[in-house]
Specification:
Layout (H helix, E strand, L loop, with lengths): L6 E5 L13 E9 L2 E10 L6 E8 L5 E7 L7 E6 L7 E7 L6 E2 L6 E2 L5 E5 L1 E2 L6 E5 L2
Antiparallel strand pairs: 1-2, 2-3, 4-5, 5-6, 6-7, 8-11, 9-10, 10-12
Length: 140
């Protein structure tokens, strides 16, 4: 929740099929109004192109949103992303880190948190192509 009482979250559209890809998901905002809540989609992921199956999110003090996707990114094994608001309305998505898979970390099943050092921390569910997972630290 932000200071204006907007609530943020994600949805997973892993079974939606379009002409170009399967999967995706959405980062959304719910804003309080006199009639209840107004929903706004901030970013729709177009798996596998820019992420697939977004997880929990966190806001920084500048209003940017950070989160992870289970799949997608340059290797297809998940990524950390940043959403930045723009004056014109659409939010800009930036890949902060793409998990390498193979002999590295992959498949983050949860979002990220900020540590006291300002770094992003989280976990992955696989490492070296197997279970076990990792705990990671990454520059925002």
């Amino acid at each position: 929740m932000d200071s204006a009482h907007n609530v943020y979250g994600t949805t997973s559209n892993q079974y939606v099929v379009t002409t170009t890809c399967t999967g995706g998901g959405t980062v959304f905002r719910l804003s309080p109004s006199s009639l209840g809540w107004t929903e706004t989609a901030l970013h729709e992921f177009s798996a596998p192109h820019d992420g697939d199956i977004p997880n929990g999110i966190i806001l920084d003090s500048d209003g940017n949103i950070y989160g992870t996707t289970v799949l997608g990114g340059s290797s297809g094994d998940g990524e950390i992303y940043k959403l930045t608001p723009t004056a014109s309305g659409p939010w800009t998505v930036t890949a902060v880190h793409s998990f390498p898979g193979g002999s590295g970390a992959s498949l983050p099943l949860a979002g990220v948190i900020f540590g006291n050092d300002g770094m992003l921390y989280g976990t992955t569910s696989a490492y070296n192509g197997k279970g076990g997972g990792t705990v990671f630290r990454n520059q925002p």
